[in-house]
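Q: What does the assembled structure look like for these inputs?
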Amino acid sequence: MRHAHDMLFRTLADPTRRAIFERLCRQGEQTVGALTARSGVSQPAVSKHLGVLKQAGLVRDRHEGRQTHYSAQLHALSPLIDWTRQMAGFWQNRFDHLEDLLKRMDQ
Amino acid sequence: MNEASTETQSVVVERDIPHPPEKIWRALTQPHLIEEWLMKNDFKAAVDHRFSFRGDWGSVDCQVLSVEAHKTLAYTWAAFGLKSVVTWTLTPTSTGTRLRVEQSGFQLPQMRQAYQGAKAAWPGFVTKLEQVLARAA
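A:
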């Protein structure tokens, strides 16, 4: 789970990559060529970003003839939604450990 | 490509603890004690000191922002590509201390941007996400 978070955060931390992902969310399935046309970066760069997005499970590719079509996989974002809740759980858990320690410090 | 908005998310956890602030302060600031309840670390209660917390799963990069003995302590907390600030506040009570930790400034707006994009395509799904976020806020 932590690994999944790590990968998602790293993947979406890059603004160009995030823009590509957003475009796929907004406009549905796109080819590398179509994504490149409006991204302001080179096709190899777009392909590389798509590769990273794919590794993180954020996009899926579909081959059709000589074209590869990419689409967003929104469910891959779900671990992020729970981030604040998970951090709250993390601190609650640490507070428990802290209280245990404080008791031991009395002895 | 828009700039990320400045909107941030935060997490607050508070608890009444039946120990005096001075003692809790020690547990929050002495590395060997911090390790017992949080993580291994090379913390020093000195403003600007850079340190890290190390867990089995990786590490958290931090820098001390403010120190007011027995009262408040704040440090940056960068992990998983997300930067935030952790602020501890100790308030004396009749029975001990009200201890509060706030972790704020997550760059969740970056993720939110993605949700904004997603909104157009999957309204139902994103509405649910936003409800969850609203509850968690």
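The mean pLDDT of chain A is 84.
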